[in-house]
Amino acid sequence: MLLYYFEMTLSEEDYIKAIYHLSQIDSKSVATNAIAEQMKTKPSSVTDMVKKLSEKSLVKYKKYQGVSLSEKGRLVALSIIRKHRLWEVFLVDKLNFSWDEVHEVAEQLEHIKSDALIDKLDAHLGFPKVDPHGDPIPNKEGFFTKSVKKLISELPVLSEGVCVGVNDSSVTFLKFLDKNNIALGDTFKILDREEFDGSVTILTRVGAIRISEQIASNLFLEIVDEE
Amino acid sequence: MLLYYFEMTLSEEDYIKAIYHLSQIDSKSVATNAIAEQMKTKPSSVTDMVKKLSEKSLVKYKKYQGVSLSEKGRLVALSIIRKHRLWEVFLVDKLNFSWDEVHEVAEQLEHIKSDALIDKLDAHLGFPKVDPHGDPIPNKEGFFTKSVKKLISELPVLSEGVCVGVNDSSVTFLKFLDKNNIALGDTFKILDREEFDGSVTILTRVGAIRISEQIASNLFLEIVDEE
DNA sequence: ACAATTTTTTAGCTTTGTCTAAATTTATTT
DNA sequence: AAATAAATTTAGACAAAGCTAAAAAATTGT
Ligand SMILES: [Mn+2]
Ligand SMILES: [Mn+2]
Ligand SMILES: [Mn+2]
Ligand SMILES: [Mn+2]
Q1: Can you tell which superkingdom this protein's organism belongs to (chains A, B) (predicted)?
Q2: Which of A80, A131, B123, B220 has a CA between 20 and 30 Å from the CA of residue A201?
C-alpha cells in the first residue's frame, strides 16, 4: 500500500472509505448528499471535508459536480479497508466474536497507525484472503481478487462455488446457518431450482438440502471457474 | 471497573492516565507544569483541560493548588491502564513484538471502546497478571496486586523472587538478557554480593551466574513472601 | 421556457484542544 | 519584608469538524 506520508485524521479516513464504497456501487462521481447519508452528517459538512480532501489531492472535486477518488485516495481507502477486514478476522477467529458483532469495533481499530502492527497481524492470522463476511482483503499493495461473488438466487442450476458471504448478517440468520451446517468456506453445488417458489436444492458437505428463495438471496457463492 | 457512563475523549483519557502516573511518583497533588511536561503540551493547555476534568468530577482541583484524581478518576485511569497493558501482552505474546516496541501502539489501542473486546482479549491471553514490562494488570474492578517489586541491587543476600520487570528496556539490554538466559517469569535467588564492586551472584534455572551492579540495578524481582 | 423542487454551497456559529503573550499568584532570595 | 523568580492562570487566536439557515446552481415538471 506504499503507506501515505501525510497524516490523516480519523474523520478524513472514514470519509475516504465512504467515498470508495459509494463509488463501487455507482461507478460515476459520488453525490454530496449520498456521502452525507453514509457518514450520518449534513451535506454542508461534507462540502467542507471534500474541499479539504481535494486540497490534499485525495479526491477530484468540482463544485456541484460530485466527487471521485484520485489514485492516491483509492490506495488510502484500500489500506483502511485492509486494516478493517484483518481486524474483523482477528475478532472472529481469535476472540470468538460472531460475524455480526465485529463491525463497530473494527470501525475503530482500522484507524490504529502502525505498519508493523498490521503486517504482524496479517501473519498471525495466516494471511487471510477474505474477512468474516466474505469480502476480500486487499494486500499491502492494494491488490485483491475481486470475488465474482453472486447470490445463490441469481446463479444457474449446476453452478458450483465457495460460500463466501452473507447479505443479511442478523443474528437470526447466522443462527439458522449454523443449525443447517452452512458455514463460510464450504463448497456448494446448485442441484435444482423450483420454478414455483424459487427454492433451491444445494449439495453441501452433509448432503443435499433444500433452501427457500429467501435464504438463497442472502448467501453469496464465489464462482471458481470465472476469470 | 464498573465502566464509566459518560463519554471521554482520547485526550481526556491520556490526561487522566498522566495524572495517575504522576501521583504514583509523588503521592501529593500533581503540578500543572508536571502534567504539561508529561503530556508534551503547554501549562495553559493543562489548566484548560484540568478545569474540564474537574467539571466532570474526575479530578479535585483548586486554582494554584495542583490537581489529584477523584475516586471516579482513579477508576477511569485504572481501566485505561488495564487496556494498555493487556494490549502490550497481546503484541508481545501473540504478534511477536519485542518489549521495547509495544508502547506506542498500545498508547493508541488503549482508547478503543468496547467492553466485550477487552474481556475477550483478557481471556484469549489467559488472564495475565503482568504486562511485558512486569507491571501489574488491574482487573475489571480496578484491583491489582501491588507487586512489591524491588531491584536486585536493593535486595539482601538470600532473597528469592520472580523476575517481573526491567528498568532499562533498551534493545541492547534485552539482547543481553536473552543471551544470558534471563527471562521474565524466572525465579532467582540472590546467593552472594561482592562488597568490592556490587556484583551479585544469582541462582537461575541454568545455574549460578554473576551479574554486574549495573545489571542488578536494572532487574526487578517480585518478592514471594511479603504481604 | 420557465416555475418549482432538489441539490449543493456559503456564511456564520459552536465545541474541542491547542497555542502565545500577558497577568496574577506563590515561592525563593536577599 | 521586599524584590525577584517561578509557576499558574487568563485572554485572545486558531484549526478541525460539526451544525443551521440562507443563497445559488442544477434538475425536473408542465
Ligand atoms: Mn472508522
Ligand atoms: Mn466485513
Ligand atoms: Mn493513549
Ligand atoms: Mn507496559
Answers
A1: Bacteria
A2: A131
Residue A189: what are its φ and ψ, rounded to 5°?
-125, 135
- Same-domain pairing of A68 and A5: yes
The CB-side HSE value for B170 (13 A sphere, CA atoms) comes to 6
Shared domain check, A127 and A189: no
Question: In this predicted model, what pLDDT tens digit does every residue of A103-153 receive, in sequence order?
Answer: 999 999 999 999 999 999 999 999 999 898 878 899 999 998 876 677 898
Neighbours of ion ligand 4 (CB under 5 A): B 88, 131, 133
Ligand in nearest proximity to the CA of A166: 2
Specify whether B88 is located in the same domain as B36: yes
Q: Best mutation site among B88, B95, B107 for testing chain A: the one with the most A CBs within 10 Å?
A: B95
CB contact under 8 A, B116 and A101: yes
- Comparing CA positions, the residue from A58, A126, A137 lying closest to residue A94 is A126
For residue A106, what is the nearest residue in chain B, using CA coordinates? B112
Q: Into how many domains does chain A fold?
A: 2
User: Does the CB of A118 have a partner CB in chain B at under 8 Å?
Assistant: no
Higher-scoring residue by pLDDT: B216, B155:
B216
Query: What is the mean predicted confidence (pLDDT) over A44-71?
Result: 97
Best of B112, B115, B122, B125 to disrupt the A interface by mutation (most A CBs within 10 Å)? B112
pLDDT of residue B43: 98
- Contact (CB, 8 A) for B56 and B75: no
pLDDT in tens, B54-94: 999 999 999 999 999 999 999 999 999 999 999 999 999 99
Q: What is the CATH number of the domain that holds B193?
A: 2.30.30.90
Is B146 in contact with B24 (CB distance < 8 Å)? no
**B109 CB within 8 Å of a chain A CB:** yes
Both B53 and B88 in a single domain? yes
Nearest to A219 by CA among A165, A180, A181: A165
Closest-approaching ligand to the CA atom of A110: 1
